[in-house]
Recover the amino acids of this structure.
DNA sequence: GAAAGTACTTTCCGCAGTGGAAAGAGTGTT
DNA sequence: AACACTCTTTCCACTGCGGAAAGTACTTTC
């Protein structure tokens, strides 16, 4: 019941969760949403890519270079497994949460 | 939306979850369940106590010294907040860490 | 066309955290 | 006296994390 350390680091957990919710996300969007510096996101992006969890796509918007991140299938599987492990750890506590009502 | 670092460390998350599920737990039981060495549990126990999250009770069973851990109210509140934060991070992906409570 | 800006990447640096082994401490047993 | 039990503390090595600053590769502005 290991908690994958690649995902467990708080910043990466947020990055991976974000990517799990979106199809693809821009570098700047992820950086600002997660609230880290350029260098930190760049490094985590590389770490996640090296782990095979995210694909990094580089392209242009007009003449400006842009980078997009996207979860790979492997990354999605790892995230799912991670969350399942979390559930197993936390579940015995009987905790429940009130879901957000998006009204 | 910070993930309390006192709880986030994998070993301590397991310890705190375990204690959230039980009234009180013995040192040896926690050590074996979580799968850490004596020294590691001792240190995490102290860390959690220093944070005000667990109460450490010492006593005897027969003539043998025993140590029990128990979540404090503060520890329970911190754990709840931690899980809610996790849920907020993970929820957009459509996965859940703990079941929803529909009130 | 030199300087400034954009969008990252890499290097540098320091610091904190983790875990196990080993040694220690207090008490009980033989 | 020697050993066992139940932790606690010290020691040590490793890793990881994060920001700042410098670097890269263009593009835009003046």
């Amino acid at each position: 019941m290991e908690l994958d350390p690649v995902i467990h680091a708080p910043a990466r957990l947020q990055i991976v969760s974000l990517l799990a919710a979106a199809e693809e996300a821009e570098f700047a969007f992820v950086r600002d949403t997660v609230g880290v510096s350029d260098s930190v996101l760049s490094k985590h992006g590389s770490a996640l890519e090296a782990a095979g969890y995210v694909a990094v796509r580089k392209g242009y918007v007009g003449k400006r270079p842009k980078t997009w991140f996207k979860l790979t299938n492997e990354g999605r599987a790892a995230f799912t497994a991670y969350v399942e492990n979390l559930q197993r750890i936390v579940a015995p506590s009987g905790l429940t949460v009130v879901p957000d009502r998006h009204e």
